[in-house]
């Protein structure tokens, strides 16, 4: 059975996506670095990993500011939705509520011959 998320490159880790999201949301590598408690060079390195993997720039860096490219805007828009939804589910679960995700059927498990 093919992995459902096979198009996500192996080098794009949740950490790199979190770094990109914070940088895009703040339009600042420095603010993202402060928010995530890492160096600005680490922010740049993580963004470069994603850009290299995708083969396109996510930011244009005219001087000291950063501006999202159209691809960067698309990626940020989707990540912001995904992170918001995940955060909402976690908050609901922690408060003892039932997530709307609990209405989904349980995942299919493969049968193994033994």
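^ Assign residues to that structure.
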């Amino acid at each position: 059975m093919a992995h459902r998320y096979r198009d996500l490159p192996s080098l794009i880790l949740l950490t790199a996506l979190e770094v990109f999201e914070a940088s895009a949301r703040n339009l600042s590598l420095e603010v993202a670095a402060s928010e995530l408690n890492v160096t600005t060079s680490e922010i740049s390195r993580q963004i470069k990993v994603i850009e290299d993997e995708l083969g396109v720039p996510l930011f244009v860096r005219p001087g000291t500011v950063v501006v999202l490219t159209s691809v960067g805007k698309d990626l940020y828009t989707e990540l912001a939705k995904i992170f918001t939804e995940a955060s909402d589910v976690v908050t609901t679960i922690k408060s003892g509520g039932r997530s709307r995700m609990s209405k989904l059927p349980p995942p299919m498990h493969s049968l193994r011959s033994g």
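The helical segments are 14-26, 29-36, 40-54, 70-94.
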